[in-house]
Specification:
Blueprint (H helix, E strand, L loop, with lengths): L1 H6 L2 H37 L3 H17 L1 H4 L5 H20 L22 H9 L2 H12 L4 H8 L3 H18 L3 H5 L3
Helix pairs in contact: 2-3, 2-5, 2-7, 3-5, 7-9, 8-9
Amino acid sequence: MREKLCDGGKWIGALVRKRSVERERTDFTDFYQRSKANCLRAVLAGVADRTLAEDLVAEAFARAWASWPKVSRHPAPAAWVVRTALNVRVSWWRRRRREVALVDHDQVQPGGETSGMDENLLAALRRLPARQREVIVLRVWLDLDSATVAGVLGISAKTVAVHLSRATATLRAQFVPASRQEIGL
């Protein structure tokens, strides 16, 4: 019986497919374990709620697994996950914008856990324009180069540099030590 299955190619084909799936599963598991914390921090910077950020990242990783052959070839798969999570948030918001009152939707929840991140920094990041916030998250937190960030966001590398410069200048101005402000520096 085994020879007939082998001669017809069915047994060999099933074995090759199984090895391919196992390799993809291993690759994705490694990627997930390496990237989950960074992706969660990046999405958490954009949304005020840790539970929502966790849900968005879980959804994005599920979509990454569903498209793993394509996502694994992406120049920055972690950036793909973050972008997907943020897009899921926008889609969710658009579907529900007429149903949900948006009073204080960007405010940090009292007592919310932020994985050890500075609440003042997170609040300052949330006040930045969306594109500047995305550039900071991808360029600084995920440590992607400008060309990769430009590709992920669909803008030029020079535009990335402009947004990064403006965002860092805004953040620097908000965090100047009191002693330097007093003497006019």
